[in-house]
Amino acid sequence: MPVPGKRQLSIKIIIETIKFMRYRRFSYRYTGVFSGITSPSQSTIWEGQLQASFAYPQWQPAADLYETPTALIVKVEVAGMVEEDFEISLYENALVIQGVRPWESFEGEGLYHAVNIHYGAFRLEVPIQQRIERDRIQARYDRGFLYVILPKAEV
User: Fold this and answer.
1) Number of domains in the chain
2) Which of 66, 124, 125, 143 is most buried, with most CB under 10 Å away?
3) Residues 32, 87, 3, 73, CA torsion sign
4) What is this structure's pTM?
5) 127 class by beta-carbon count within 10 Å (0-12 exposed, 13-18 middle, 19+ buried)
6) Residue 84 maps to which CATH number?
7) CB atoms within 10 A of CB 121
8) Does 72 fall in a domain?
9) C-alpha separations of 22 from 7, 32, 46, 89, 128 in Å
10) DSSP 8-state code for residue 132
């Protein structure tokens, strides 16, 4: 289901080595540990001085799962990224999309009044209940959205 005029991504899609593996979700509590921060209004927090260590992943992007008669389409909201920032893995029962949105800061003096955009590592797990034609999977990144098209296998 290519879109005319849109470049298909060569996003790394891992399918051969995990062809028959089932995905098992492990539950962890993801927490952040900050050291040396006394007040969130200190400008040094956002000047690259932040010494934080986070468990992976930090956040999960918003996603839609859409089904047509011939395919499942996963649309993921991941603005501000490039093709190399994604890794897509298809297991027998799940699609896993992970990557890192790099931190972008403004140059010069100033301080943030709000930081609502998520940065850093992310992981999205989408359960797949149907057989997929693995050799026809497509992915593209367009205007801040990652689209993964999973053609259904004929039964």
Assistant:
1) 1
2) 124
3) negative
4) 0.66
5) exposed
6) 2.60.40.790
7) 16
8) yes
9) 31, 30, 41, 12, 11
10) B
DSSP assignment letter at 79? T
Two structure tokens written together for 10: 């060569």
What the block records as the tokens of 21 is 């593996």
154 near 28, Cβ under 8 Å? no
Q: Is 84 helix (H, G, I), strand (E, B) or coil?
A: helix
Alpha-carbon distance of 56 to 58, in angstroms, equals 6
Domain extent for 87: 13-23+59-151
Number of C-alpha atoms within 13 angstroms, CB side, residue 71? 16
Tokens of 55: 């468990």
- Which tokens belong to 82? 């490039």
Q: Which amino acid is at 155?
A: V
Per residue in 2-34, pLDDT (tens digit) is 555 555 555 555 554 444 555 555 444 433 444
Residues in the chain, pLDDT under 50: 1, 16-19, 26-56
- Within 10 A of 1 (CB to CB), how many other CB atoms are there? 11
Looking at the DSSP bridge assignments, the partners of residue 100 are 121
Whether residue 93 is contained in a domain is answered as yes
Q: What is the pLDDT of residue 21?
A: 54
Torsion of CA 145, 146, 147, 150, to 10 degrees: -160
